[in-house]
Amino acid sequence: MKYILVTGGVISGIGKGIIASSIGTILKSCGLRVTAIKIDPYINIDAGTFSPYEHGEVFVLNDGGEVDLDLGNYERFLDINLYKDNNITTGKIYQHVINKERHGDYLGKTVQVVPHITDAVQEWVMNQAKVPVDDDKKEPQICVIELGGTIGDIEGMPFVEAFRQFQFKAKRENFCNIHVSLVPQPNATGEQKTKPTQNSVRALRGLGLSPDLIVCRSAKPIEMAVKEKISMFCHVEPEQVIFIHDVSSTYRVPILLEEQGIIKYFKQRLNLPIDDQPSDLLMKWKKMACRYERLLKVCSIALVGKYTKLSDCYASVFKALEHSALAINYKLDLMYIDSTELEHSTEAENSVKYHQAWHKLCKADGILVPGGFGIRGTEGKLQAISWARTKKKPFLGVCLGMQLAVVEFARNCLNWEDANSTEFDPDTKNPVVIDMPEHNPGDMGGTMRLGKRRTVFKTENSVLKKLYGDEMFVEERHRHRYEVNPELTHCFEEKGLKFVGHDTEGNRMEIIELENHPYFVGVQFHPEFSSRPMKPSPPYLGLLLAATGTLNAYLQRGCKLSPSDSYSDLSDDSSPEKEFPYSDTS
């Protein structure tokens, strides 16, 4: 097993996750089996109880693990399926060690950070690195480990010490450290500064780890003189200094790394049995990046949510939309709308915000209402759903978005004025959305209906069934504590809101579709977690197709052109119009 540790310096949020994912993508393109581990030094057991404003979205895995959003980057870039133990937190490690202490495993000994915590980290990494993550179920050959936070953070010290020891246990030829640092360029001088990187590398060396590669992040391409200066003061060869400047899309990052000779370096440094040139996989990434930059036609989607001030709160939703837009040769214009600004109370307090929000909603080609928790902003989401239904705007509701679509239909089409979810009004006379008692035991962490579950299609005449390739069932990831009341579904179906997908027992409503509407779909699951750059999620692809007026043509042709096929025969001079034959067909 070869281990690649990615650490970060100067500031957090520097892009370690994208760089770790890109390194994995490059090595996978060379024919190696790659897995990934993310270490988060916070004491929480997992990310499940975080506000999205704390660490961005909560990413859900097949096994129900609620983890850091960087594991979503790993899955999308590497096209693998990770497990909850691929996300290590301080809370998990300490809980593991304390449980062993209570069990008597350390009987007679004083339990300490060194060696017990550091040993637990090393054992966890070695055990998890062997777990297959590809469909072929073979053991990985490379494990990319991202250490969250910044070198020097007090909470990260036990993990740094664990890897200081681990580098000798694994042996030099099997362990490589990549340090990601910032090269700022102050406006006052316009000069790119290397001192933050020098200090960061000095701190890392002081803790016992020496970087094999230094990846410098910057707003603009870095000059050769800066590279030579970092090489001289950080005790590495110039070819061990890699530059990654801000680019038009993250699809460019693996290409930038490959162009700077990273494959040749890894081949020599880790003694890897690979060629110097990557396979067709990286060529597809290169063509995809070129294609992304040449798109001319624009499709605008309004995302109506409550965490719109930070784009990472809906990272997977954004990526799923982007994958779908790219597959049909459209540039995505994603407009974030704070759902509270669509409410009548905002009109009285701040009419400018209210009218601006409605202007965005009205000009959008499609509307998306994602998942969420809590009553704040729900009335605004209901207003957006009503607009989409009555004006026949393509609409996709995910999790809470689907539940609110049912509430809106009950209020305005069934005339149940007080219809609501028991999450927001426990005493409503028309509880169209109810809680699931077995998933609401009082504890908040890890108690929802989580992970991959099967949804069975109950009718042949379903748009989503066709988009999924006429499968009898689909398996998607869930994260919810409330569900549509199954006792009332017949009332909705009589009026045209069809529950076309149920769980395997037929009790839980998974998919809704509205008759006589271009695209009005709600799903209880989160399809965005399974979307991949070359395999977009069918519900999101359906939304983009409907928003661009190409859904009917796509369905009539049997959905035969898969997004992955559309990348297989691209040449550098191919035009977007030739790549997707339905682009101009209404």
Please give a quick description of this structure:
With 586 residues, this protein is an alpha/beta fold. 37% of the residues lie in helices and 19% in strands. It folds into 2 domains: 2-290, 3-Layer(aba) Sandwich (Rossmann fold), CATH 3.40.50.300; 295-579, Class I glutamine amidotransferase (GATase) domain (Rossmann fold, 3-Layer(aba) Sandwich), CATH 3.40.50.880.
Q: Please identify the structural class as seen in this structure.
A: alpha/beta
Q: What is the level 1 CATH name of the largest domain? A: Alpha Beta
**Helical content (DSSP H or I, runs of 4+):** 25-40%
Number of separate domains: 2
Distance between the termini: 52 Å
- Poorly predicted regions are 562-586
| CATH structural architecture of the largest domain | 3-Layer(aba) Sandwich
Report the radius of gyration as a whole number of Å: 25 Å
The strand line-up of the biggest sheet is 11-10-12-13-21-20-19-16-17
What is the chains' assembly state? single chain
Percentage of residues in DSSP E strands: 15-25%
Shape: globular
Q: Any overview of this molecule?
A:
This protein has 586 residues and is an alpha/beta fold. The protein has two domains: 289 residues, 3-Layer(aba) Sandwich (Rossmann fold); 285 residues, Class I glutamine amidotransferase (GATase) domain (Rossmann fold, 3-Layer(aba) Sandwich). It is built from 22 helices and 21 strands. It has a nine-stranded mixed sheet, sandwiched between helices. The longest helix has 17 residues. The radius of gyration is 25 Å and the shape is globular. The chain starts with a strand and ends in a 7-residue tail after the last helix. The relative contact order is 0.11.
